[in-house]
Amino acid sequence: MDPDQEKNFLDSVVDGVIAVDKEGRIREINQATLDLLGYKKKEDLLMLPFEEICKNFSLKGLRDKIPLAEQGLMYLNKDGKEIPVSVNISSRVSYPDDTIFMARDISKIKELIGELTCSQAELKTSYTELKVSKDELVRSEKLAYTGRIAASIAHEIRNPLTNVSMSIQQLKRGNRIKQEGFKHVEIVERNIERINYLITELLNCARPTKLNFQPYDIHTVIKDVLESNKAKISLQRIKVTEDFTSNPSTLRIDKEQIERAFLNLIINAIETMPRGGNLTITTELNGNFFLAKIHDTGRGIHEKDIIKIFDPFFSTKSGGVGLGLTICYGIIVSHGGTIEVESKSRKGSTFIVSLPR
Ligand SMILES: Nc1ncnc2c1ncn2[C@@H]1O[C@H](COP(=O)(O)OP(=O)(O)O)[C@@H](O)[C@H]1O
Ligand SMILES: [Mg+2]
Prior knowledge:
The protein is an alpha+beta fold. It has helices spanning 3-12, 31-37, 107-173, 179-205, 218-228, 230-235, 255-271, 324-334; strands spanning 16-20, 26-29, 71-76, 82-91, 99-105, 214-217, 238-243, 250-253, 277-286, 289-296, 338-343, 349-356. Helix content is 44%, strand content 22%.
């Protein structure tokens, strides 16, 4: 190909072609490069150092490495704007000392990659949200199921249990029991009590079907629960701190239910600090929600247990029933709120209840 033929050929190529001499000056350029960089005439660029239109580029040592694999470079257009390009570098056949740069604009591809990365991140967020909703759904299904079973079993057991209880009373009344027998009667009575307690807890577990919403001061509810547990609190040398917001704290709640929820949380906190510690209750407003944080300095919750603690019958306590948090969860959710936990082994726990205002 003679030089004229080569020029015509270059202008018909869609990629931007630039020939650079061994001094690093632009020796030849095609129409596609002019279009890419926004120049009108080839003369505007001819004999300029290649570095003027290619950012952070040095020709030094490059010739020894030719042919090079495709490279990503940054061209600068007429106004100094960066244009990402993918470049093939080779030597020029008609002038072997020249280096040929054949560039393809990849700004569109870069943009697409950017958009794709964004979509990927969005997809990831949606997936996480979906998983949380699914877990919530499974949990609330489990709760509803437990509730239904609990209610039917509880009714079945309560009647015969009442009969047993009444018969025991009859036996005691008639002085028909001798010394030895009394010990056993007491055991029976204690166990009846325990079964009764379990039945009550199971019935509480069934999500309340009809809530009695009334405006009520949530701080008073918390104070009442603390007051009803003050003997245990002082016996175990637990220091209580009430860090309450001065904002209005009246919420529309079913007072009895919410009291039961806080009672379960506060009892758990007390039970985790048998040899003293701090129980801190903080309240604050967060947008349309009222937050109550119950923090203890007890033994904390094992990471592997965190996802199980709201499950019915999950308990790590000897003699624990494992329904307290299940009941609590049901009550808070039926108020349109949420309950979360933050905890580390041996570092204490914080239960965060949020209720709509
Ligand atoms: N404040 C807390 N500190 C440490 N562990 C807790 C706390 N609250 C709950 N847990 C864990 O969650 C489990 C379930 O609690 P809960 O449903 O109230 O049942 P129970 O108190 O009968 O064990 C507890 O057995 C305990 O392992
Ligand atoms: Mg409990």
